[in-house]
Design brief:
This protein is an alpha/beta fold. Helices cover about 30% and strands about 20% of the residues. It has helices at about 60-65, 75-90, 115-125, 140-150, 160-170, 175-190, 205-210, 230-235, 290-300, 315-325, 345-350, 360-370, 380-385, 405-415, 430-435, 465-470; strands at about 1-10, 20-25, 30, 40, 45-50, 50-55, 70, 100-105, 130, 135-140, 155, 190-195, 220-225, 250-255, 305-310, 330-335, 350-355, 390-395, 450-455, 475, 480-485. The longest helix has 17 residues, at about 175-190. The radius of gyration is 23 Å and the shape is globular. It starts with a strand and ends with a strand.
Length: about 475
């Protein structure tokens, strides 16, 4: 394919280069010869940037979230119950053989955790399950909990929550693929050319099927969890290696979850949460240090990078320790709360800080309460860069939307709405934010991958909602047009 009159935008300098013609083939970009037989797209002087990546997506949960009714992220328990009552009143046959599923509550500022009994007051015998916005808890009615195979009080957290979400994924493969395809098309329209799929039960074969049926609209690196590590090792697919010749699907990292989330007070911290007075009140470690080291060593030996979830600062310290002991490479996912003494360790160990800027908008109010004494150590984008660390941006969708431009805006302005910037001292430049979204590729040029985005605007001339609202005129992933308005 021949792209005529493209103007590469250098993300390091913010300067638009003179118009050039670019030839794509074999997934790469080259300078075209004097004569060439190729399909032609005239970009008419549009700015062209390297393609954008979302480094942390739960694709199946994102697709399922489209089918769930939304409840307020800011409401109290009683407010959520009111949302549920309204939704059930609008259903023609609530609970007809299926669990009614909602999504979006945040429990971080509630004065108590609710139970099945609370939901039962509104839903009766209708099975209802509500998934939290951060995916770390599921609130079930008594009947829903029973149908999912859980007892207890109906408020499931961490491992139980993840298992419940897997059981709630009741769509047929064909229906799920179509929903995934719709999500991918929306992402491509925002300029996304690649994602890391961190879904619990995703696999290479599922994505190859989607690619074969036209339901894959970007590069995909498929993560594997510890329970399937042996299988991944046996296949011999190193992280980044294509699953088949010419495929956009590749092996991703080993994904390990070491702690919980701030909303459930389960992010593992060095200091207790407000009202606590000891280690038992400082969050949870879901994988012990020795087990973590063993997993990372096995991944290292199999040429798999490791992507390790750590939201609390003690979890981050423990993860960095494990990277140092094993010599493994990879990323620390979320890095939401950090000790400053750990900052230089990222660069020293070659560990990427894989962060989600939009979480700053979602979590700032809760952090001002839950981590009131330590918000100055949250979302340390500027300090991480100053220490030499590499930043990589993602969404953790469906926790936040797959929307790289909104994430870039938040990283640059430390706000995503009309509120003033939150800890503006940690703001980074637009160039730095964009490079964190392109895997460090600064300019589209011959020799590089045919992953690119053509824009009708110059993002360096924008700010606020205009920057957050940038869309793509043309998106190419691996030389394939995945979105076009031309």
């Amino acid at each position: 394919m021949l792209l005529k009159r493209a103007r590469p935008l250098d993300l390091r300098t913010g300067l638009l280069r003179d118009p050039v013609d670019l030839l794509t083939g074999g997934g790469r970009i080259s300078a075209p010869p004097a004569t060439v037989q190729a399909e032609v797209i005239d970009l008419e002087g549009r700015a062209v940037i390297p393609g954008l990546w979302d480094e942390h997506v739960h694709v199946g949960q994102l697709a399922l979230a489209r089918r769930r009714f939304e409840v307020s992220q800011t409401a109290s328990v009683e407010g959520i119950l009111a949302d549920v009552a309204v939704h059930l009143a609008e259903l023609p046959t609530p609970g007809a053989g299926l669990i009614v599923q909602g999504f979006g509550f945040r429990a971080s500022q509630w004065d108590r955790l609710p139970s099945s009994a609370d939901l039962d007051r509104v839903v009766g015998e209708v099975p209802v399950a509500l998934v939290s916005a951060d995916l770390h808890s599921v609130w079930c009615s008594t009947r829903a909990a029973r149908e999912l195979g859980f007892g207890g009080d109906g408020f499931l957290t961490e491992a139980d929550s993840f298992e419940a979400q897997t059981r709630l994924a009741s769509m047929s493969p064909e229906a799920l693929d179509l929903a995934v395809s719709a999500c991918g098309q929306e992402a491509a329209a925002r300029g996304v050319v690649g994602i890391r799929d961190m879904e619990f039960d995703s696999d290479i074969e599922t994505w190859l099927r989607r690619e074969a049926t036209g339901c894959c609209h970007h590069r995909v690196e498929v993560a594997v969890y510890p329970d399937r590590l042996d299988e991944a090792v046996a296949r011999g697919l190193a992280t980044g290696r294509a699953a088949a010749p010419g495929s956009l699907v590749a092996m991703g990292p080993l994904k390990v979850i070491v702690d919980g989330s701030m909303s459930t007070h389960s992010a593992w911290c060095h200091e207790p949460y407000p009202g606590g007075d000891g280690p038992d009140d400082a969050g949870v470690d879901t994988v012990g240090p020795r087990d973590l080291e063993s997993l990372l060593a096995r991944a290292r030996d199999a040429d798999l990078l490791s992507a390790v979830h750590a939201i609390g600062d003690r979890a981050a310290t423990t993860v960095l320790d494990a990277f140092e002991i094993t010599g493994e490479r990879g990323s620390l996912e979320h890095a939401q709360l950090l000790r400053r003494s750990d900052l230089p360790r990222f660069a020293a160990l070659g560990v990427t800080a894989s962060v989600q800027p939009l979480h700053l908008v979602d979590d700032r109010d809760a952090a001002d309460v839950v981590w009131a004494d330590r918000t100055g150590r949250t979302f340390l984008f500027a300090d991480l860069l100053a220490s030499g660390a590499r930043l990589a941006f993602g969404s953790d969708a469906p926790v936040s939307p797959v929307d790289p431009w909104a994430a870039v805006r938040v990283a640059v302005e430390r706000t995503g709405d009309r509120r003033p910037p939150w800890h503006p001292e940690q703001a980074i430049g637009l160039s730095e934010a964009l490079l964190a979204s392109t895997r460090g590729i600064a300019v589209t040029a011959p020799g590089g991958p045919a992953d690119l985005v053509a824009l009708d605007v110059d993002p360096f001339a924008l700010g606020g909602e205009d920057l957050a609202g940038v869309t793509s005129a043309l998106t190419m992933a691996g030389g394939r047009v995945t979105h076009t308005l031309l």
